[in-house]
User: Fold Aspartate aminotransferase family protein from Shewanella algicola.
Amino acid sequence: QQKLDSLQTADKQHFIHPFTDSKDLAEKGTRVIDRAEGVYLWDIMGDKLLDAMAGLWCVNVGYGRQSIVDAVAKQMQQLPFYNSFFQCSHPPAIELAQKIASLAPKHMNNVFFTGSGSESNDTNLRMVRRYWDLKGKPSKKTIISRDNAYHGSTVAGASLGGMSGMHEQGDLPIPGVVHIAQPYWYGEGNGLSPEEFGLQAAQALEAKILDVGEDNVAAFIAEPFQGAGGVIIPPSTYWPEIKRILAKYDILFILDEVISGFGRTGKWFAAEYFDLQPDLITIAKGMTSGYVPMGGVIVSDKVADVIKQDCGEFTHGFTYSGHPVAAAAALENIRIIEQEQLIERVESDIAPYLQSRLQELAEHPLVGEVRGLGMVAAIELVKDKELKQKFDSKTGVGTFCRDACIKHGLVMRSVGDTMIISPPLIMTHGEIDELVAKATLALNDTYQYVQG
Ligand code: PLP
Assistant:
């Protein structure tokens, strides 16, 4: 307790936390996590927590992988850092680019490395504008995104994202980024069938292209399903219609797979899951399972052929682009996913089990909808199931439920009143049973809370 007290005091005095409500932090103190193994975390008091969030949607291979530690240590001894600017390279980054190209959709054979998902989306913005400049169409600059999307926290990332709370702070979005409605059928379907609504939501893209002028639109950016927005999965009609519209107007397509990449849907990339052929794919998180920070953009041959032609330099890059230690971690992470056949296991076994067990929670009086695919899911909490009526945001139902989960030894994230599940891909049936049992206890506590 003494150690916790002194850490919490120091934390309060010196640490500015990302995405943290300062009132909450002052009242409850920080939760200090000390160690982890497999799918479990232990806090500094020794309390064990089942991590249904894989850290922050990223620890795909689970915690405590000695072979990643060894690969990182070996690389640190061999070459802890070198850059990839000015015609320089090094084996881990070259091997990783080649490996990712072999896993990506067939028409994508190049990678631009970054340090995070946010940097990757900044890269996308600059790369699509560079592409159209080189193609002799410099007016094609605008990027269309979606409300409630999350594409990172840098100025470009937060602008591309559609979170109003982020836009309010810092005069965002920057010029040249516009948004259309998200395909959120449960909350905004307005009596339409999912198929009708999906079509309508996709057609908002065409209306926006015509509004901005097709000669001014560079790209459309989207997550295959919106993650931080509350696991919003588009109806089946959505993506085919989006594909038709993008082809009709010659607009580049950026698919942000920071969450969905590296196995979460039971495919290497959700592009395959949804039959999409993006021009650029944003990657991070599961690329290294979060052991070391790393991100990147997988680039299609169509774009790479233009960017890499003899046309001068693309004046863009980060000191840590292709960092050798991060690349070594990513290579070992990918080796584990392949060797343990985690993706096949997700698709054929563990994801169907997770989704079917979670569907049982839909019966709970507090639960409006349980939705999910692969190893990601959301439980949306509502005041009235029949009317799909939401709670007043001041009630803090999601936050209460998140804290109740912790009390029962489970980590779920809340997005408003939607509870999020995105566990490591190694979860067993028994651990999923434990997850569902603990989530039920937390839902019961939350139900009592809202009943007053
Ligand atoms: N894109 C998506 C879809 C994300 O979910 C995230 C992070 O959650 C990002 C981009 C930003 O990644 P990072 O936090 O590594 O900058």
Q: What stands out?
A: Residues 116-118, 121, 150-152, 223, 227-228, 256, 258-259, 282, 284, 295 surround pyridoxal-5'-phosphate (CB under 6 Å).
